[in-house]
């Protein structure tokens, strides 16, 4: 069970992270940036939704495994969950990142416990300060198992 | 003091990974070296966390494939390379009883759950809840008709 924060009333709302399917694919016409239809074919794709409104996708995540390493290939929030002042729900990104960190423990081999991803330039500090991510090379970042464990406990 | 940072202004929070490039190979090499620097204590902790998360996932899943508490105990001992005989002696039970625990022929009592929780540094209730989940499923499967016959409306009539 995960909880996200309703910014309107300040209450925690029970939510769940479930596999995405054709019925729940977020679409570009609704303001989403990634091509989630395509990502559905490429990796394991998940959505975060509240239990009370299961038809609304609050955030989406695509995980792929390449060369025994887990990559957060795409992470996106619903267009109405961005912006410091105007977003509807908070903790969506944190919950999805924590979920991804959890999945990194299922990797066998040297890269077990590493969640890797490519950040945007303007989000490097955000990932570093909010989620304990570290820069490894250029925009390629990772969250190691210790910080992953903290995120899993927090979210 | 934490650095100031901006919240995302766009919905997409990542870019695609450049798998297959030299940059990606170098990135993997950096992480590979980091993993080699992990101490034995850290490696054990990672293995224990892995199994703990698997236990939690099992509890919250509706999968019909049953995993006994002993299944997870066996996984822990195997990942930590602890011999079953040595473990049995350490916790004060006969090796034959430990085998039965692992095979699901014997239950893990509260005392053992507390010992496991302490040894493996996780919530002892995990062991109890996994057993309870499996026992409930057995009962449901064996006597589904019996339990489906109960209704609060029968008590509230009239």
Description:
The complex is a heterodimer of chains A (155) and B (158). Chain A has 155 residues and is α+β, with helices and mostly antiparallel strands. Chain A has a domain at 2-109: Gcn5-related N-acetyltransferase (GNAT) (Aminopeptidase), CATH 3.40.630.30. Chain A is built from four helices and nine strands; from the N terminus they run ββαββββαβαββα. Chain A has a nine-stranded mixed sheet. In chain A, α2 packs across α4. Chain B has 158 residues and is mainly α. Chain B has a domain at 40-145: Orthogonal Bundle (434 Repressor (Amino-terminal Domain)). In chain B, 65% of the residues lie in helices and 1% in strands. Chain B contains nine helices and one strand, in the order βααααααααα. In chain B, α3 (69-79) crosses α5 (95-103) and α4 (84-91) crosses α5 (95-103). The longest helix of chain B has 21 residues, at 40-60. The mean pLDDT of chain B is 93. The A-B interface holds A 1, 31-34, 64, 66-67, 69, 71-79, 81-84, 93, 102, 105-106, 110-114, 116-120, 122-123, 125-126, 128-130, 136-140, 142, 144-145, 149, 152 and B 2-19, 23-24, 26-28, 30-32, 34-36, 42, 45-46, 49-50, 53-54, 60. β7 of chain A pairs antiparallel with β1 (14-15) of chain B.
